[in-house]
C-alpha cells in the first residue's frame, strides 16, 4: 500500500504506463538519462521496491547532485521506509508552492519518458531549410521540450531533444514584463558567454529575435527572450519558472551549443508540435511556385502582375500597400530591364497562424541603373486559396 500513499494521483496515471515498457537509458542526452533514472525510481516505488527506488535516485544524484526533484523523491522514499508519508512531496513544513512546482516537473519529465514523440515524424513548421541552416530548433511548450533537427538536403531529421522551462504565466507573449514566452518563428541573434552574464543565466545565453516582424506588426512589446542556462547550484527549474525565456540545464545548454549558428539557426516556438503530411508537401510546392512567379513578374517589369502578389494588408518596415505600390511603379518606370535571382530559400510555417509562412532568401537584383545583393524576409498568407505577401523587408 506504500505506493498509494507515496504518490499523488498526478503521478499515478503516468506511472501506470510503465508496466509495459521500461525506460531506455541508451540515449546519451543528459535530460533523457536523468528522466530515465527518475522514472525507474518511481516505477520501483509503484512496485513497492523501495530499495531499488533508493538505488536509482542515488545514482541520479551522483550524476546531478543539484537536482531538487531527485532530492524530493529520495526524501519520500526514506520517509516511506519509516511509514511516515501520505503523499508525493509530503515533507513536513515544505513550501506548498515549491512542492507543486516539483510535482509539475515530475509530471512533465515522466511524460517525456513514457510518451516520447515519434522521431520519424517531421515537424510541419520546417517546410524548407536552406543550405546554410545546418540545424533547426522547435520548442514544444506543451511538453516542455526543445527538439533539435539536422538539415539533410533541405529536409529536417531528428537529432535529440531536451527538457526546458518557459515563462511563469505560459505562452502568447504580448507585453513587456508579462512573464510569458512568445509563440513564433525566431532566429539566434548572438552567443553570450558566461563571463558576460549574471549567475541567473547559467553557463551561457543565446538571445532570440523577439520581437520579430509579425510581433511588431501586431504591437507586441518587450525584448530579451533568450535560450539560457540555470543558476549555479541549480540543476533544472520547473516547467514554468522563467520571465519568458526558454531555459535549459547548463549541461544541456552546452550540448546544444554546437547546433546553434548566430544569425542563421531558426528557433520555432509553438504551443503544441504539429506534424507534416502529404497536404503540407503540396502546399509547400504551391508556395514555392508562387515565389518563383513573383520573381518572374518582378523581372518582367509588369508592375501590375508583380503587385498582385501583395495583400492589401501588406506592410514593410516603412510603408503600407498604397505607398509600396506607388514607389514600385515609380521605380520600375525608370528601368529598361531587371534581373532577379533568389538563392538559399527557407520556408517556415508560423505557429498559431493558419496559412502563414516565413520565407527567407538571398536576393541578387540587377537592373539598367542599379545592382544590389541582400538577405530578405517575407511573410506570405493564403487568402482565398492564393498565397500573397503581407510583409517584406531585409532579414
Helix and strand layout, with pairings?
Elements: H1 2-6, H2 9-16, H3 30-46, H4 50-63, H5 68-81, H6 96-114, E1 126-128, E2 135-140, E3 145-152, E4 155-163, E5 166-167, E6 184-187, E7 192-193, E8 204-207, H7 213-217, E9 226-228, E10 240-242, E11 246-247, H8 250-256, E12 266-270, H9 278-299, H10 303-307, E13 310-315, H11 321-333, E14 338-349, E15 356-367, E16 371-383, E17 386-394
Parallel strand pairs: 2-12, 5-10, 9-11, 13-17
Antiparallel strand pairs: 1-14, 2-3, 3-4, 6-12, 7-8, 8-9, 14-15, 15-16, 16-17
Helix pairs in contact: 2-6, 3-4, 3-6, 4-5
Question: Summarize this, please?
Answer:
The chain has 395 residues and is an alpha+beta fold.
Give a verbal description of the structure.
The chain is elongated and about 90 Å long. It has a six-stranded mixed beta sheet. The chain has helices at 2-6, 9-16, 30-46, 50-63, 68-81, 96-114, 213-217, 250-256, 278-299, 303-307, 321-333, and strands spanning 126-128, 135-140, 145-152, 155-163, 166-167, 184-187, 192-193, 204-207, 226-228, 240-242, 246-247, 266-270, 310-315, 338-349, 356-367, 371-383, 386-394. It is 33% helix and 26% strand. A hairpin with a 6-residue loop joins strand 14 and strand 15. It is built from eleven helices and 17 strands. It has three domains: 2-114, no CATH class; 126-270, Beta Barrel (L,D-transpeptidase catalytic domain-like); 278-394, Nuclear Transport Factor 2, Chain: A, CATH 3.10.450.50. The termini are far apart. It is of the alpha+beta class and 395 residues long. The model is unreliable at 1-11 and 17-28 (pLDDT under 50).
Amino acid at each position: 500500500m506504500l505506493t498509494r500513499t507515496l504518490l499523488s494521483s498526478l503521478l499515478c496515471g503516468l506511472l501506470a504506463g510503465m508496466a509495459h515498457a521500461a525506460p531506455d537509458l541508451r540515449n546519451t542526452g543528459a535530460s533523457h538519462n536523468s528522466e530515465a533514472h527518475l522514472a525507474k525510481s518511481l516505477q520501483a516505488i509503484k512496485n513497492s521496491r523501495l530499495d531499488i527506488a533508493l538505488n536509482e535516485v542515488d545514482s541520479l544524484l551522483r550524476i546531478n547532485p543539484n537536482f531538487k526533484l531527485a532530492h524530493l523523491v529520495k526524501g519520500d522514499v526514506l520517509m516511506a521506509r519509516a511509514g511516515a508519508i501520505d503523499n508525493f512531496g509530503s515533507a513536513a513544513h515544505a513550501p506548498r508552492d515549491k512542492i507543486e512546482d516539483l510535482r509539475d516537473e515530475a509530471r512533465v519529465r515522466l511524460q517525456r519518458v513514457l510518451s516520447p514523440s515519434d522521431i520519424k515524424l517531421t515537424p510541419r513548421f520546417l517546410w524548407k531549410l536552406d543550405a546554410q541552416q545546418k540545424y533547426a530548433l522547435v520548442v514544444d511548450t506543451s511538453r516542455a521540450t526543445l527538439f533539435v533537427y539536422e538539415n539533410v538536403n533541405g529536409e529536417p531529421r531528428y537529432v535529440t531533444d531536451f527538457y526546458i522551462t518557459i515563462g511563469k504565466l505560459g505562452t502568447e507573449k504580448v507585453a513587456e514584463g508579462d512573464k510569458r514566452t512568445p509563440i513564433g518563428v525566431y532566429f539566434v541573434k548572438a552567443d553570450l558567454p558566461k563571463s558576460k552574464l549574471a549567475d541567473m543565466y547559467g553557463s551561457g545565453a543565446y538571445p532570440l529575435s523577439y520581437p520579430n516582424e509579425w510581433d511588431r506588426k501586431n504591437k507586441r512589446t518587450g525584448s530579451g527572450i533568450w535560450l539560457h542556462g540555470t543558476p549555479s547550484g541549480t540543476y533544472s527549474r520547473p516547467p514554468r519558472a522563467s520571465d519568458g525565456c526558454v531555459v535549459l540545464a547548463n549541461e544541456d545548454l552546452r550540448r546544444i551549443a554546437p547546433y546553434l549558428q548566430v544569425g542563421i539557426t531558426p528557433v520555432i516556438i509553438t504551443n503544441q508540435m504539429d506534424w507534416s503530411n502529404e497536404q503540407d508537401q503540396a502546399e509547400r510546392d504551391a508556395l514555392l511556385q508562387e515565389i518563383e512567379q513573383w520573381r518572374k513578374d518582378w523581372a518582367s517589369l509588369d508592375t501590375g502582375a508583380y503587385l498582385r502578389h501583395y495583400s492589401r494588408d501588406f506592410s514593410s518596415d516603412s510603408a503600407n500597400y498604397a505607398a509600396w505600390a506607388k514607389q514600385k511603379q515609380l521605380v520600375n518606370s525608370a528601368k529598361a530591364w531587371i534581373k532577379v535571382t533568389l538563392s538559399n530559400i527557407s520556408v517556415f510555417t508560423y505557429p498559431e497562424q493558419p496559412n502563414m509562412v516565413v520565407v527567407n532568401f538571398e536576393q541578387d537584383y540587377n537592373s539598367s541603373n542599379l545592382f544590389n545583393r541582400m538577405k530578405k524576409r517575407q511573410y506570405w498568407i493564403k487568402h482565398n486559396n492564393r498565397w500573397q505577401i503581407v510583409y517584406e523587408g531585409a532579414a
